[in-house]
Amino acid sequence: MNNLAFDDRDGVIWRDGAMVPWRDTTLHVLSHGLHYASCVFEGERVYNGSVFKLTEHSQRLVDSARILGFELPYTVAEIDEATRAVVAANRIGDGYVRPVAWRGSEMMGISAQQNRINVAIATWQWPSYFDPEARQRGIRLVTSDWRRPAPETAPVHAKAAGLYMICTMSKHAAEGAGYHDALMLDWRGLVAEATGANIFLVIEGRLHTPTPDCFLDGITRQAVIGLAKDRGIDVIERAIRPEEFARADEVFVTGTAAEVTPVGSIDDYRFTPGAVTETLMTDFEALVRRQVAAEAA
């Protein structure tokens, strides 16, 4: 992985309709998105030059902006086209894409109706999100003190920058204590997700996963549910209490960065990556390869 700071790299970033040299793509200190979190973003994976589920991600970016009360000045198709262009311009084979949209600096205050909506798309090389050895054994999670907010208190179905503040705090605390990530509960004390990935439990051969009523229904999550159903594995979306981890034979997380990653422990609960997790890891890799082949055809 490139160890340069993210503001000091070669390459280009797509910004408001044009390719801009990487180091020139700057943000003013009085941008509304910085002060008031009026900012939405996406995270996408590039495999052999192809962005996995690109249109789904572009659509979610548009939808997230609308939830926050602003319209992007580009269509989903235009965002798709710009994403492919910036991946090609930076010669990314396997990497990561970060589209982001935010209110600019024309007005500074809670009210921001006249602010310009800016859109940028960056991409870079990206290794495994978790250490490869940890993925084999299963990552270690600890329950965070912070909880996912109720739907009535935050725009929980938008991939909004402000919602990730508690994720950063939770992950820093977890890593500081020697864990790989944190488990987030919701405002009711039910299992929600990890800091940047959805979670699944394998109980007696069935997949159980929390209902996404206060967090994102991840695009990788949806893909893995589809793969499980194709295998004839029952998938149950429901409220899950933390103590139910005692019944789980396997646990794994899913996400754009995490892909399908087994979990070895959560607090004092222990799990062994097993057949269901391994099958879905293999099936997900095959799904990615099929899409790459289809785009190349």
Which helices and strands, and how do they pair?
Layout lengths: L11 E4 L2 E4 L10 H5 L2 E3 L2 E4 L2 E2 L2 H14 L8 H14 L5 E9 L13 E9 L6 H6 L1 E10 L16 H12 L4 E6 L4 E4 L3 E6 L2 E5 L8 H12 L4 E4 L11 E6 L3 E8 L2 E2 L4 H22 L1
Parallel strand pairs: 8-9, 8-15, 12-13
Antiparallel strand pairs: 1-2, 1-7, 3-6, 4-5, 4-6, 6-7, 9-10, 11-12, 11-14, 14-15, 15-16
Helix pairs in contact: 2-3
Description:
There is one protein chain. The protein has helices at 32-36, 54-67, 76-89, 132-137, 165-176, 219-230, 275-296; strands spanning 12-15, 18-21, 39-41, 44-47, 50-51, 95-103, 117-125, 139-148, 181-186, 191-194, 198-203, 206-210, 235-238, 250-255, 259-266, 269-270. It has 297 residues and is an alpha+beta fold. It has two domains: 12-125, Aminotransferase class 4, branched-chain amino acid transferase, N-terminal domain (D-amino Acid Aminotransferase, Chain A, domain 1, 2-Layer Sandwich), CATH 3.30.470; 132-291, D-amino Acid Aminotransferase, Chain A, domain 2, CATH 3.20.10.10. Strands 8, 9, 10, 11, 12, 13, 14, 15 and 16 form a nine-stranded mixed beta sheet that branches. Strands 1, 2, 3, 4, 5, 6 and 7 form a seven-stranded antiparallel beta sheet that branches. Helix 2 crosses helix 3 (76-89). The longest helix is centred in the last third of the chain and has 22 residues, at 275-296. The chain is globular and about 55 Å long. The model has no long low-confidence stretch (mean pLDDT 95).
